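look at this one:
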Amino acid sequence: MSSAVVSTSAAQGRPFVFVEEGAEDRPQPSRVELCVEGRPPQRVSTSVFSTSSSKDARLAGVTPASRLAVRPAPEMVSSGIAAMDALTGGLPRGCLTEICGPASSGRTTLLLAALAAATRRGECCVLVDASDALDPQSAAAVGVELDRLLWVRCRENSPEKSLEQLLRATDLLLESGGFGLITLDLGDLPEQAARRIPLTTWFRFRRAVEHTRTVLLAVERQSIAGSCSSLLVKLGLVKMGVIKMGESENQASEPSMDSQNSLPTHAQLLTELEITAELVRSRLDRKPVRSAEITFASKTAWAG
C-alpha cells in the first residue's frame, strides 16, 4: 500500500492523503481511499478509460467535408424555345420549374412549346388543366402529339374545387410515375385561390419528383411555390400585334402603350406577341444567379 500527500488550493492548504490499495491485484475500476485530515477515510470509485479510443469511435461515422460527394447536376431538356434554352439551359428533370406572368405574357406559348418538345422526344406527358382552357387544335398546330398527351380537365364550378381536383390528380400522377413532363396550368385561376396551396404541398411535390426523369412544370400568374422550385422564370409582354376585323395581315397595327397590357377586343385578332423572359431564381448550380433577360416573339398560326 502506498500513500501520497497532496495540497490543493481548493483545500485552503489542508492536506489530502490518497491511499491506494494494491490496484495490480484486482481488475479495474480501482478504489481509492480519500483521507481528509481529521475525518475518517472515504472510498471513491474511479473509472479508467481511454479518451483517444472513445473519440475515435464517435468520429468513425463522420465523413470529412473533403470527401463529400458533389450532388450531380440534373439532366436538362429543351423547352421548345431556343431563346429560353439559352437563358436557363432548358428544363431540369427531377425538379419543379415555375413559369409566371400576367395574361398575354406568353405563358401558354411556353407551355405548348414544352409539351411539343417532350412529345417529339417520344415521352408521355400530362397537362393538369385547372380551368379547362386548353385548345387541342392550337396544341396540335404547334406540334404537340396529342396521342402522347394525357389531358386532365378540371371542370368544377368554383376555383377552390378546381384547385382541390388539380392537387389530387397531381398526387396520383407523381405517385404513378412514368411521365416525361407533368404541367400544372394555374394561369387562369384567381391569384387568391392559387396562393391557398400550402407550402408543404409544393414540398411534397418536389420530393416526389426527385430522383426521377420527370419535369414538373407549373404555370401561374405569380410565383407561389417559394423555395421549393429549382427554376423560376418571369414572363412579361413587350408588345402585341393585332388586326381589326376585315383588315389583312399587312395592315396589322400595334396597340398604343396605354393598351399593351389589355387583351384585344372582340373586333380585333391577335397576330403576334413580343415576350420578355427574366431568370429570377435558379438552384441548379452553386453559383449565384446573375440578372438575365431575353426577348422572343410568338406568332399565331391562323392569322391572315
About this structure: The longest strand covers residues 268-282.
